Predict the 3D structure of the following.
Amino acid sequence: MHDAPFDPDFPALEGHHLDLPDLHKLEPKAAFVHPPRILLLYGSLRERSYSRLLTEEAARLLGRMGAETRIFDPRGLPPPDSVPADHPKVQELRSLSEWSEGQVWCSPERHGTITSVFKSQIDWIPLEIGGIRPTQGRTLAVMQVSGGSQSFNAVNALRVLGRWMRMVTIPNQSSVAKAYQEFDEAGRMKASPYYDRVVDVMEELVKFTLLVRERSDYLVDRYSERRVQAEAHRKSVAASLADATSRA
């Protein structure tokens, strides 16, 4: 970190909290040997849900590429804030999110955006714990299905959410138009340019996850959070000293 606590050229900057970016610090401290851990979320409760079918197809591809996958079933997840956070479905979702190193989000487009079923899942994942977002540093791929012509409203909304959750959202994405035509009776996706794009997206997600997961601690270490943590530590020490003095 920067040694000087005060720099006249940067009067608002607390120099001792500044960590100058360094290429050498991107070297992993330890190599991960387990498969990439990918959580997949989808946004429909319909019996024949095309976002679920697309998610299941993505999970098969990820497994073929060597990843370990989990698909969260949103059935039974209560609306946000309607029950305490210790509800079993909420705890299941949060545990899976914490387990993951990357995620796939897939929502139908409804009224020009994502569904409430999908948004509820994101709303149950804590935005921050102790000033740190628990999803930050994880990779993310976004997909959508549409009943009509191709659109990108849902994936764009998902990208906004991913950025807000400080996830590393990969450049590629999948938008499947007229999804009812793209799956056979068994629920498997048919060969098509849409299928090829899904393969591209999953391939890219695995690559980014392998690149990021061993370096995420350094990539998400931020000046502002170091300042907050240092101030919290200072107040804690001061309170302890005050308590010790009062007892003396």
In short: The chain has a mean pLDDT of 91. The longest strand covers residues 102-108. Helices lie at 50-64, 88-99, 116-124, 153-164, 193-212, 216-219, 223-247.
